[in-house]
Inverse folding.
């Protein structure tokens, strides 16, 4: 079964005893019912076995200095964060037990859980947290460097308490604690040391450029011990070689964001477990262009794009269509689903009601506004290096053409595309965001971000500004959820951008790997302690 938990059974002992033969029936015949006996022996999770996964060996095994996504999967098994997001993007305690601002000030106090140990037996302390923050601050290329943006200072108060001063109190302060903590006593000697962590697994062997072997960390603070005895991390030279390694059975598990993972379905011994990522695709419209300031035009564009067909045809169905830039599994998503289905008729009606008509029978709709002709004609930019977007842009051109638009597609190298966006020399662009787990959308849609060009579409609406600001300072969960419901209603009504979909990713595993394999957007290996390898597969 795909997209869920696979329950496997051992070969069941099934005995069917049919004790009656068919004979012609008469009114006085006695019909004997056949006896049926069936027994199914459930397969029990087994302890033991080795699972093989792949990783590009990074320049540094330090999780704070590594940008390799494949190695991040490994480091999640070895290290814990101060705080962690659950599968629906709620922020939960991890190494941190509690956190709070002091009396409305910008002073933020974090208290660690007690009795948490590193895999070498030494305690996790506030000094380790401070050292981790120092490491991030001194490495501008750290994937966690943005976490420091609003931190003014920090200091240890005692072994379990660290005090951070932010530039202002804000609701996402705790989100800045979402980074792995590393042990000072190991990494102050060598920032690229072989990992000593506090996660569910620990490193027991490392051979540079070849492999790393993991075993259960007996010092782990969690209550569940993993069934899998060993994990062998095979270092692979480049991302293109992952597929070959999986197909040649060098790997048991493959974590892939490539949309074509279903090519593995031809292999009889695999299952895939998919989940929506934070990769959000959309069409950005330049609101400096008068034609896009009309909501009816924006609505017609959304109605005129067959988003499901784009997903099915070019992403093999591996994306989740959305009207809003809020992750479909998020606790903040209003679960209203997709309001705008593809409809050429609805798109044409929207344009007709806005005064557009094909007055000269050239197939392009136009109207006159204040004595000037407005034509439904624009250029759609996308980046040349992205095969999917090149195909999708042509499909968008075709479908909008059927609704009365004249769309020219222009494919640019990424550097040229970025230059066009930065200079606002564009009509529309097919692009995407890798959205933050914080789910703050101010960077892209608040009017104060227009000058910095983070809000590159130049959308400005005081109502949305107020909602984004409220969401930024509201600590109460119910209050924040209510704000996000209004925010999503605004997106559906006003269409600050043309939302397309969130892309899916997947864990692809050989069926020797069983159990509750349930990846999610934050941690594809969250349920690793519930994975197992049957005895006869070990």
């Amino acid at each position: 079964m795909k997209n869920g938990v696979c329950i496997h059974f051992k070969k069941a002992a099934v005995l069917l005893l049919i004790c009656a033969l068919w004979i012609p029936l008469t009114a006085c015949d006695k019909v004997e019912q056949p006896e049926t006996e069936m027994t199914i022996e459930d397969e029990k999770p087994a302890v033991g076995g080795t699972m093989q996964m792949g990783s590009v060996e990074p320049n540094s095994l330090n999780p704070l200095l590594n940008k390799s996504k494949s190695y991040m999967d490994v480091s999640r098994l070895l290290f814990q964060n101060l705080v962690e997001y659950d599968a629906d993007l709620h922020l939960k305690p991890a190494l941190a037990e509690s956190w709070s601002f002091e009396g409305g000030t910008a002073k933020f106090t974090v208290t660690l859980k007690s009795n948490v140990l590193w895999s070498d037996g030494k305690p996790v302390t506030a000094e380790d947290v401070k050292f981790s923050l120092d490491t991030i601050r001194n490495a501008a290329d750290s994937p966690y460097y943005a976490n420091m943006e609003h931190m003014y200072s920090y200091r240890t108060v005692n072994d379990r308490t660290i005090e951070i001063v932010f530039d202002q109190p804000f609701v996402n302060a705790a989100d800045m604690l979402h980074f792995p903590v590393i042990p000072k006593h190991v990494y102050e000697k060598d920032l690229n040391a072989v990992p000593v962590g506090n996660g569910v697994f620990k490193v027991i062997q490392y051979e540079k450029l070849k492999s790393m072997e993991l075993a259960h960390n007996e010092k782990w603070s969690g209550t569940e011990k993993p069934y899998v005895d060993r994990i062998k991390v095979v270092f692979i030279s480049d991302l293109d070689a992952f597929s070959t390694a999986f197909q040649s059975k060098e790997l048991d598990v493959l974590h892939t964001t490539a949309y074509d993972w279903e090519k593995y379905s031809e292999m009889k011994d695999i299952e895939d477990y998919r989940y929506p990522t934070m990769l959000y695709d959309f069409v950005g419209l330049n609101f400096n262009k008068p034609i896009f300031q009309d909501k009816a035009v924006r609505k017609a564009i959304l109605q005129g794009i067959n988003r499901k067909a784009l997903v099915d045809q070019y992403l093999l169905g591996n994306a989740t269509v959305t009207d809003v830039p809020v992750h479909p599994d998020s606790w903040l998503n209003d679960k209203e689903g997709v309001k705008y289905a593809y409809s050429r008729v609805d798109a044409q009606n929207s344009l007709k009601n806005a005064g557009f008509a094909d007055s000269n029978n050239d197939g392009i709709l136009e109207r006159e506004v204040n004595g000037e002709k407005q034509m439904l004609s624009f250029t759609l930019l996308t980046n040349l290096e992205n095969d999917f977007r090149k195909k999708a842009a042509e499909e968008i051109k075709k479908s909008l053409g059927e609704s009365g638009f004249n769309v020219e597609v222009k494919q640019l190298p990424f550097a040229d595309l970025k230059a066009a966006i930065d200079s606002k020399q564009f009509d529309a662009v097919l692009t995407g965001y890798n959205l933050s787990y914080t789910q703050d959308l101010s960077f892209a849609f608040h009017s104060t971000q227009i000058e910095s060009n983070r809000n590159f579409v130049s959308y400005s609406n005081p109502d949305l500004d107020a909602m984004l600001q409220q969401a930024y300072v509201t600590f109460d969960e119910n209050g924040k959820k209510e704000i996000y419901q209004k925010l999503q209603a605004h997106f559906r009504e006003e269409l600050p951008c043309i939302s397309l979909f969130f892309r899916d990713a997947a864990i692809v595993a050989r069926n020797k790997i069983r159990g509750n394999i349930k990846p999610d957007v934050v941690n594809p290996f969250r349920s690793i302690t519930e994975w197992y390898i049957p005895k006869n597969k070990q």
